[in-house]
Design a protein that fits this description.
By secondary structure, the chain is α/β, with parallel strands linked by helices. The chain contains ten helices and five strands. Helices cover 50% and strands 9% of the residues.
């Protein structure tokens, strides 16, 4: 589902996606409120979500769409340097983000990536954003996520996920198989109640396992 207040932007994305055999556009909305109202009837797997829109912005819409079980994965559109809401969008449940001037093939790959949940889109840029906003936010004494329930190996894996490494890169760093890493990642997600790698990155930073700039 495409959610953007600019019709030309939606049209451009739709034309790109309709040329892919495994992708289809099931609905379009001009603001977050329309997206929430439309989603139950079209049941999208992935929502391409703009941030700045009238009536309801992309952050509020993302939070509503991902609140319940079985909700769609949300891929946020951003201008990066101008949007200061990306961190909030990830906190609201977005699975990743992309730049509005994305190339066609990158757009398609990004949607497939977010759909599988196997990798966080553009991890290096995501780290920059998270570091930028966490550094400016006071850190509370209480943490909503208890990482102490993780085993030592699971904590190591979470740290590497937080640094933006893929499963293959983590396997190389820890000298284990990719299948073993996938199992550890699954355990981390289950124990901490995480939806995907985007949330895992945030938890790694918010709990201090990974430090901004470190």
């Amino acid at each position: 589902m495409l959610v953007d207040d600019q019709e030309l932007v939606r049209t451009g994305f739709r034309l790109i996606l309709q040329s892919e055999a495994d992708l289809s556009v099931v609905g379009e909305a001009a603001n977050g409120r329309q997206a929430i109202e439309l989603a139950p009837s079209v049941r999208p797997d992935v929502v391409l979500m703009d941030v700045r829109m009238p009536v309801m912005d992309g952050i509020a819409a993302t939070a509503a769409l991902t609140a319940g079980p079985g909700g769609p994965r949300v891929l946020v559109l951003t201008t990066f340097d101008l949007d200061e809401y990306v961190y909030d969008a990830l906190a609201a449940g977005a699975s990743g983000f992309m730049l509005k001037d994305v190339k066609a093939d990158h757009l398609v790959d990004a949607i497939r990536t977010v759909h599988t949940g196997d990798a966080l889109l553009a991890p290096s840029v995501t780290r920059r954003l998270i570091c930028r906003f966490l550094a400016s936010r006071p850190r509370g004494d209480d943490q909503s996520v208890d990482v102490d329930i993780l085993t030592e190996r699971e904590r190591e894996v979470l740290v590497l996920v937080g640094r933006g490494l893929s499963n293959t890169e983590i396997a190389t760093a820890l000298v284990v198989s990719a299948a073993t890493v996938k199992t550890h990642v699954g355990h981390v997600f289950a124990k901490l109640g995480l939806r995907d790698r985007a949330q895992a990155v945030m938890v790694a930073y918010e709990t201090g396992l990974v430090r901004p700039g470190g």
